[in-house]
Amino acid sequence: GITRHYDFNVEMANATRLCTTKSMVTVNGQCPGPELVAREGDRAVIRVTNNVAHNITLHWHGIRQLRTGWADGPAYITQCPIQTGQSYVYNFTITGQRGTLWWHAHISWLRSTVYGALVVLPKLGVPYPFPAPHEEVPIIFGEWWNADTEVVVSQAIQTGAGPNVSDAFTINGLPGPLYNCSAQDTFKLKVKPGKTYMLRLINAALNDELFFSIANHTLTIVEVDAVYVKPFTVDTLIISPGQTTNVLLTTKPYYPGANFYMTAAPYSTARPGTFDNTTVAGILEYENPFSPSAASFIKSLPLFKPTLPRINDTDFVTNFTNKLRSLATAQYPAAVPQSVDRRFFFTVGLGTLPCPANMTCQGPNGTQMAASMNNVSFVLPSKALLHSHFTGLSSGVYASDFPVTPLSPFNYTGTPPNNTHVKTGTKLLVLAYNTTVELVMQDTSILGIESHPLHLHGFNFFVVGQGIGNYDAVNDPAKFNLVDPVERNTVGVPAGGWVAIRFLADNPGVWFMHCHLEAHTTWGLRMAWLVLDGSQPDQKLLPPPSDLPKC
Ligand code: C2O
């Protein structure tokens, strides 16, 4: 591989959407930020310089960071933030993976405007396991707030309530014509008839899983989270925050000049009023070989618009996710751990904290909103966990006692317990090098069932099973798929259900795992694994780079 150098300058820039102008944090003045392109086997060297008044870190979402956790990026987990006026060089090699990933800020809510595509092409001369597309196009879903998102989140924290929902969803930064004062800000994908395009879909939205469809066209799913899947064709797909999906779109032979909407709108089972149910639209625009007057007539015709599933259509989501399968070929094997060293069961859900004395809280019954795994609402430390581990100075920073027994069992998807309070803590779960892990994550009904897109840093995992209702430890494992389960880095814990994943802990370091709905992460739906060094020299975490920021 070669080395790819990038300069990412974190700087303020003005943007106007929905007739509102705001100054916001960007990389190089752009939102979405610059696309990072490399090939499998390349080294990426990204110099990030902070020219804004906020602390910043960047995360390379889905990059495994084998032994280079120092470059992973979550603030206070693998590094202290880059302070104003400082820089830090993220330096990592992209080993054994190719496909669509993305990068984003990993501190507070700055990822609302600091994100971009990270495209890893196959090694030179290695084809895709499907016919080469005519063109490849990143399609990044985001969210736009008229207000400053740092103000939105700090108000939410100060009132113990849920944050305000966004004012619009966006495609490549543009809300599109279904919002007021927005038609001029519409993403247009210009296509030729009879060609195949590969869309690299990325859900960078903060708080919403999204349905996506293009009117009168089908989409063939070929990859999720930078892992090839057995192709299948749909009208509509679901993509959760953190996830990426490559689809092939074959244009019609004879639609010259016609236009079709592509739309995305949320999937959510949260109680009405707590989610955003607006729709972003872009336009698929066929090239027009006609005279200008014929062309403008065609442009004046109404556009075809897709019908998306209803907002709480969990059946659609279950059906779709059940279709995802690894390729599992000789060239792209599915290395599913067939035996398990350690089994875990985590409850995943919402909860509350007693209202602090100095606050008036707007959560249920005057409490502070919280979220937890196994009843622990994770508190970010003031020093980085990885450095504390590496230097052996963990006291006062973290404890290694993440509870492996969940809150006392109840009917997780039925009537919730009366006590909704959770505990706070900075607790890690320690794994020996090369441990095979099976983890069942169970949604709870506390304050309502809801799907949680859980993201694991540092690893891909296999989704060996999922179901609705309570996990049945006696009968469900017999149904696990250990042959061709989908391999990914972010999975939805089904609303009112459970998901089972397996992974091999072959990457020493401290690895964050959290709900990629930013509101839930803020409320504490997060934890970290500590994977110890192996005995061989190439099984150890590398030492930190000399420019690693200090807290
Ligand atoms: Cu894409 Cu920890 O995040």
UniProtKB/TrEMBL annotation:
Coiled-coil positions: none
GO function term, MF aspect, one: copper ion binding
Cofactors that this protein relies on: Cu cation
Source organism superkingdom: Eukaryota
Record-listed E.C. numbers: 1.10.3.2
Catalytic activity: 4 hydroquinone + O2 = 4 benzosemiquinone + 2 H2O
Plastocyanin-like domain: residues covered: 10-123, 135-288, 408-533
A single cellular component GO annotation: apoplast
Keyword Oxidoreductase: yes
One Pfam family this sequence matches: Cu-oxidase
Function: Lignin degradation and detoxification of lignin-derived products.
Similarity comment text for this entry: Belongs to the multicopper oxidase family.
Listed name of the protein: Laccase
